[in-house]
Amino acid sequence: MPNVRLLVLIIYAVATILLQRQLLYHPPEPSKTFIKYPARCMRIVLALGAPLIGPLIAYFWVDFSPLPLVIVVLLATVLPLGLLYVPWLWRMNVPKPLLFTVIVAVIVFLALLSILVWVYGSNDGRGITWAVLPMLYFVLILYTWAPAILPLSAAEQQRSHLQATRLITGFLSTFPRPVVVVEHGELQTRVAGNPFVGTGPGLLVTEPHNAVVRYQGTVADRVIGPGVFFTERGENFPAVIDLQGQFRVTPGIEAQTRDNITVRVPCSSIFRIEGAKEPGELGQPWTYNPDAALRAFLATEVNPAKQPSKLEAHRAINWADMPLHEAGYMIQHVLKRYPLDQVYAISEPQPEELPRLTIAKEVREHVIAQMAAIGIQVTAGGVGNRIVPTDPAIVKQRLESWKAQKMQIIELDQGKAKAEVVREQGRVRSEALVELTKNLQEEVKKLQGIKPEEAKKLIALRLLQTLDDIVQQPEIKAQLPVATTETLAALQHRANQS
To answer: How many angstroms separate the CA atoms of 183 and 187, rounded?
Structure first.
């Protein structure tokens, strides 16, 4: 008998080591198909190694128990399962249909009956302690260490022992609820599971600047996060909401002017969820208004009037695209009031009355008001100045039209300049004649009593001197050609010689 007992101990030790290594290097994979509830419980039993506890204790009892070996082995198996293990599964919320409930009740009844038979039949209750203590110790260890396995903070670990133990139990059942992580703004499944009929709670881990929309069944009822959260039956998280400032820009929104010319209008928007605020310390979760975030998500709409084509008429507009879509709708509405030439106007009676400024102001005020109603805070953005017709022929035609207008303005200015030159020349000529006449009259008065031939020569010389004085005036000299000055100088030289 001692040799048999030694062999059993060796087999038990080897089996324990192999089971430990199997669980360490080959953890149970979540099943992709439905696992029945009794099968889940059996897999948990096998994974935790509970069958190895009963036989070992049974062999220890043989030496001091007056009961037959078969009875001792039976009791050593029933007591841990009935008194501790099955109620523990029940406490872990392993789903239990009616049949499994009956089985649990029968096992617990047999365990209690075994205790009565053991104590009153042998007047010795030490075996009960031997049967229950190892399993109780294992459950306490799992309850204590389970939160440390999960990515929880120190404060969360203190209040999450039961939830963490339930999660690990569900994982060992091979049909748990999902474990989902938000990484780089995208939902990624770490442990596949079923949110409706899986065992135990699920787990959701988000980044500090991300929140997620929670669906209870098919209804979105709240936004949770950032942080680590245990999920319960029927909870699903299909969408991520980024709490950081968002920047969206479009190279062009097509709209028609009053003269039915299609143009492309650039537009941009900077916005965030209402109340979203960056924390003061790195790694801390962002704060925000959960109600505003839920309103923004639920504002996702299907509006054929705001879609660019019939193919996209029933496409849902994401909350992060709502500001630009609303701006595009408003641009199309406002631009119909202006012809293309007025849109390109560069001057008006008042600077604030420029059509481009008016369009940008109306669009900005409309978008801010509409987004505030659905929980989105628009902080900046506007309509760009590079408004271009989509048809290149229109661009060419408009350039030629503007060129003709500019050439007309240039020619008009040139005509005005020439008229001014002619008018100035006439004035100068009149002034020169007046001065010439005055000088000649003075000279005639001085020539009283001189011979006629000499008087003619003196008058001619005086005339040339007067002309030379007039020519030397800067404002007159600038208007005369060089040949005139040279001719006048030659005549004066000949007159002096004569």
So the answer is: 7
* pLDDT, tens only, 225-277: 898 999 888 888 888 999 999 999 988 888 888 888 888 889 999 999 999 88
- In tens, the pLDDT along 416-466 reads 888 887 787 777 777 766 776 776 666 666 656 666 666 666 666 666 676
What tokens does 300 get? 């996702």
Start-end ranges of CATH 3.30.479.30 in the chain?
248-390
Separation between Cα atoms, residue 294 and residue 292, nearest integer Å: 5
Confidence (pTM): 0.64
Buried b (16+ CB within 10 A) or exposed e, 25-63: eeebebbeeebebeebbebbbebbebeebbbbbbbbbee
Query: Any idea which fold 248-390 has?
Result: Tetrahydropterin Synthase; Chain A (3.30.479)
Helices (H), 303-391: 322-335, 340-343, 355-373
Q: What is the DSSP string of 180-198?
A: EEEETTEEEEEE---TTT-
